[in-house]
Design a protein that fits this description.
- By secondary structure, this protein is of the alpha/beta class.
- It has a single domain, classed as Rossmann fold (3-Layer(aba) Sandwich).
- The protein has an eight-stranded mixed beta sheet with strand order 3-2-1-4-5-6-7-8, with helices on both faces.
- Strand 1, helix 1 and strand 2 form a beta-alpha-beta unit.
């Protein structure tokens, strides 16, 4: 059984926890306030999920998900994620995160920042441009006409292949943006951000993006 360690129990983390359980994974989920504060969430999801600290979730993970506010990314444990693939759902909201000069000046991307924080992990962008409420409701079987597509981005082809498989399990087609340096194309204020689009439309929106 594959265990997904989810660091962050907000709307996205909660939706992903439910989705992974539905698709046969075990889940260990953590937040910044301690596992005891997740008792109601764990009870609502049911078997296959347990609450833990962020370090414990990272240690237990075969695959990890980081879905914390960007301002907290440096609090993500480093050593327990060594050698592991980390799905990054982060987006930059200066209203919440405070201004980050390198992002304001377009010198880097949120996923590159997480990759620098986790130098021995493999970061891959995933589930960042879909509303949490849509993750469990907008999916459809492979081959469905006008199937919704989601983008991914990584410096690792193996990580892209992993997210492609996970997206398909959740009911979405995949468009590969390329390297993490290109992941800005699917972030806030870009044409592909949080709109429903099939693969062809997503590719067009990625091409229209302006930095």
């Amino acid at each position: 059984m594959t265990t997904v360690g989810i660091i962050g129990a907000g709307h996205i983390g909660t939706a992903l926890a439910k989705g992974f359980i539905d698709h046969g994974y075990d889940v260990v989920i953590a937040n910044s306030r301690g596992p005891e504060t997740l008792a109601d969430l764990v009870a609502s999801i049911g078997d296959g999920v347990r609450a833990a600290t962020a370090t414990e979730a990272a240690e237990a993970a075969d695959i990890a998900v980081v879905t914390v506010p960007l301002k907290a990314y440096r609090e993500v444990p480093v050593e327990p994620l060594r050698g592991k693939t980390v799905l990054d759902t982060n987006n930059y909201y200066f209203e919440r995160d405070g201004h980050i000069a390198d992002l304001d000046e377009k010198k880097t991307t949120t996923s590159q920042m997480l990759q620098e924080h986790l130098p021995d992990s493999t970061v891959v962008k995933a589930f960042n441009h879909i509303m949490a409420a849509d993750i469990l409701t907008d999916g459809s079987p492979a081959g469905t006409e006008n199937r919704r597509a989601l983008a991914t981005s990584s410096d690792s082809a193996e990580a892209v292949a992993l997210v492609t498989r996970i997206y398909d399990e959740f009911g979405f087609d995949t468009v590969d943006i390329g390297a993490l340096s290109e992941s800005w194309r699917v972030e806030r204020d870009q044409p592909a951000y949080v709109v429903r689009q099939n693969a062809a439309e997503l590719e067009q929106n990625l091409a229209r993006a302006e930095r």
